[in-house]
Fold these 2 entries.
Entry 1:
Amino acid sequence: MLKHPILRQTRFILFLSVLLSVFLLSACQSNTTLPAPTVAHQPVDVVEPLTTDPAPIDSETQTPGELPTETLAVTTEVPKPSSTPSPTPTPEDFWQELPVIPTELSDKMREVYQKGIAMGNDPHTFTKLGDCNSMSPDFLHGFGGMYDLGKDYAYLQPAIDYFQKSFRLANQSTNPGTTTSRLLVSLWTNDLCKRDEIMLDCQYRLDNPSIAIIALGTIDAKYHQQDPEAYERNLRIIIESTLERGIVPVLATKADNIEGDNSINATIARLAMEYELPLWNFWKAVQPLENHGLKPDGEHLNSWSGPPATDFSLPISMEYGKEVKNITALQMLNFLMQQLADPAERVSPTPAS
Amino acid sequence: MIKFKTTFIAVFILSAILLASCAASSSPAEAVSAYWEAMVAKDKAQLSALSCSDYEAEALTTMESFGAFEPVLSNLECSVLETSGDSATVQCGGTIEVSYGAEVLKIDLSERNYAVEKESGDWRMCGTK
């Protein structure tokens, strides 16, 4: 079976060419392991359809009928709304006993505030960081001109006067779906922000506030089981960045318990204590309310009067989440004004009648 | 001898084609496209691999910022604006949309240009320009 030398050489070259092709193809593949162009299909849990709550008026953009299209990337048990009383507090639940509005402010926060004023922060300006439950016009916006404090809350008028310019400031840090991580990247900013400026920095630069109301955690809770460390890690960054700017961070607990074990509220309260920050324990304020002031989805606050939810002329207003959120936020601002503001610059608050 | 020459030329052409396709798939524009694909797929490993070392942390936080929601990437097309050695600038068209009930937030990817650099032989996303 002797073959012609040229034939043998050709076969050898062919063999080499196949080897070379295989080698090149494999090398090529290892260099360009591009991800699949489709959205990852992780185990999902479709949010159950919501029923419309006929009693309270609500202008929430996330209408109940739309939510079933929204999916969660993690199998999280969304708690069913319950009006049953909370279990007996354990040491882990220490935060549940903290007052809605603190009774005193730490010396550290007074120093931070004074440092901020010296740096040029505006004493009459607060800003807010939050999700859809903190958006305008439902949250605080109404105090900019469309409100009725009634008799019970007339004593808060000086706080409205003092912070007048803040209530209707444009705000990009309170949006549907806002999480702690969204504030720390530049992807979601609008054209008022600089290139590569993260949302937190941009909001602070635009508003130049002396106080920041930080009401985050509801949306983070949906991602919590995938990365339980993320919320605290991000909140610490936000707190420290806020303090560095001489802005007093006000941490707010949330009304919901989407994460299932209230661990996000516990984290909020723990960090407030660690950094000596004022804690607005909104969770406590909604405990007496039916369904804890939440719509049947266990996430969005309900409302009596519709936007801007700042009509307190009748006692019934205090039976709904958005109204309680607005009035307790105003109480917090009033408290901070009393504690921090230059007495010459503020109207003396009148006592509640 | 003619057969030998033909085979040699065929192998040469095949190799050239394969090498060219290799280079094309790791171009700066393709790196940015792959980055956004990995972002919406929430593919942490790919996102890390496609980001330069200085930008990796921000890329992962950006991915985290989508939370539990599923972003949808549409009409993505990227092209190189300029290349200078191991650095390049890429522009993209397309959007990322995230639905929150009735409200849809849309991110227009054409609002920024993207900085791309070659690290360890691969083009990687290094932020915006």
Entry 2:
Amino acid sequence: MNVIKKMQKIVNQPDEYAKQWKAETGGKVVGTVCSYAPVEIIQAGGALPFRVFGNGGNVFSFADTHLQSYCCSLVRGILNQALAGDLDFLDGAVFTHTCDSMQRLSDIWRMNAGLGFHEDLVLPVKMEGNTAREYMIRILEALKTSLEGHLDVAITDERLGHAITTMNQVRTAILQLDQARITSPSTVSSGDLHMAIRAAMIMDPAQWLDMMADTLSGLTNTAGDNGPSPGKRVILSGAVNGSRGIHDFIEEKGGAVVHDDMCTGIRYAHGLVDESMPPIPAITDRYMHRVNCPSKHTGIYARGEHLVETARATHADGVIFLLLKFCDPHAFDYPYLKTMLDDASVPSILLEVEDPFVFGGQAATRVEAFLEML
Amino acid sequence: MEKLGEIMMNYYMEAKAPPEERGNRKIAWITSGGPVEPLIAMDMIPIYPENHAAMVGASKMGGDLCAKAEEIGYAGDLCSYARSDIGCSIVNGGPINGLPAPDILVCCNNICGTVMKWYEVQARYYDVPLFIFDTPICHTRFSADAKQYVINQFMEYIALLESVCGKKMDMDTIQEVGYRAIEAQKLWQAILDTTTYKPSPMSAFDAFFHMALIVTLRGKQIVVDYYKNLLAEMEQKVANGIGAIKNEQYRLLWDNIPIWYRMRWLSKKFASRNACLVADTYTSAWAGSMRYVNPDDLLDSLAEAYTRIYLNIGVDQMAEEVIGMIQKYDVDGFVMHSNRSCKPYSFGQYDIEAIVKKKTGLPTLIIEADMVDERNFAESQIDNRIDTFIEMIESTK
Ligand code: SF4
Ligand code: SF4
């Protein structure tokens, strides 16, 4: 699929894409580090929200003078790129409060990277209740005002509305592709979908929609035509996954990744912003209602219930947890998620991974054995 | 003067007694930086799993209990206060055979995000309400929005306690408790400040011991009484020129949580090199944000004080605080515990070290270990590094 090849190239060399976008549009590029960054507000300011991943490989020579080895490789990788000069095209960054490691990354970046403006969006940890909602609306308003200064543009409701509509289209497209795979996994390969989602986190959304247009219209024609899944159906659950290796491997072995609960996957697209509401409260409500990341709180069983429910709804045969080494929020949730899956008779395995996730060796052997066992 | 060990033992014994023997008082587990005043005002018994975990560590029982949590799927690199507490709940282990089960969990994230995940685990285990007191980190500032958010939560917190206890909060009582807590914090700071004298009448190792009360029982009269006596004792030592160690030649500042299972070893090691840890960034956290408290506007100002504590500010501000302490206590070197358990305390230390070196030129030492899990301690390596560090101070002094 030609489009996916292009997206793969963008994902592999995101800096090239961002520089070209800047050259073509004269716009500003704003780094983000997490799916809680309100991209609509950045886009409404005419800028490109650019999700920074830990693309740095497993050598962190620049980050090592600032962060201990017991920090997750995503955070070390992000800092390494910032300090190595790989992100010099950024005009600024918006850090969203999630976990302890990200919290300190924000400080260290602010103190050392020198990459334009720096905004901390200290989100509530509770994604529920009126008190947290009101606070979140106020800080998003404040962020909007700051960004107006940094980007030198008035972020009007109209501009916000436009950005919201476009992002809703991106999310709808991703969810459609996801749904197509749930119904009929051979419609589009999960590795391709993974690439498309990661590209969406980097690209101008209008450009992304444009590129995907044919794929999406093809989808409406072929959806459901390809029959049920040929093999074992699995769900991936975890934080970030920086490679498509595991997707392709599972497909090679006759299985299918039918869905996921990953920051770099469907969680990014989950939930739409209500276009009939005032923009900032509407953006807030999307975060309040979408499936949460473990660094946020929406009840003590919310994630487990969501996972079990998703496994049922997608007729998954098993779940593969991808746990990033040293990732506290996910590591704290894993035991109860596993227990809830066990109770619902959904088998699971845990793979300890690094970012980027070089899939192979022992992990491949274990996944293969798991697929056979299902 | 009642001994600290006795006070703590009575406190835990009362909490562990059957409900009818403790006047049916409810038990609330609360994080170390959490607002305890409302609990005391409601006559509940606050229990601090972190203080208990420190006791577990000091009793060298941390490794075993952490391993219990690991057996049921918790990763070995999670905070060892959390791991040992989770392990302890399952087997009722540790020096006092486990903590009394909570009626409510109060989690304030001004120290870290870890506590929220840890308390979620315990909320599922004990099946009790969990209140999350969310104090937005002040990377560069404390915003008015954050302040309003925290104040609103204070009201929600009190309402929840009222429903758990089935009675109204008495606003006069909470004021009184608040005043006593302030008095205790002032006394605690005064005690820590006696170490500005040379020789220092106490060391950080003593502070690590005496801090138990400011953590667990602040707001109670017994704490005020205990610290008054302790302050008098320290002032007497100052007057008599008695130091915490025999021959104080070098004064050091300690950063991060103590290595609980190696307190004696470390204190002997430093003393053998005539070095006294005169101050630390940990025990002062319970008095550090006192400057924000206004007795005439107690609840609102407590919201600020609880949000702006040492761990809930940016790394550059932490470095400023450290430099302030270096000057105040007139130290010759800076020892940092890079604590595998505590990411918010440890990430950023390299930057703080660099800033300290640049601005003060002081020798620094980083020891990598874990506060409770004794399986992570490389004795001979640390021993050597301390020697080298002291030699460096000797050569620069
Ligand atoms: S949530 Fe986990 S993976 Fe993400 S930055 Fe934090 S520790 Fe790293
Ligand atoms: S030791 Fe650190 S990570 Fe653990 S509970 Fe305390 S502040 Fe949080």
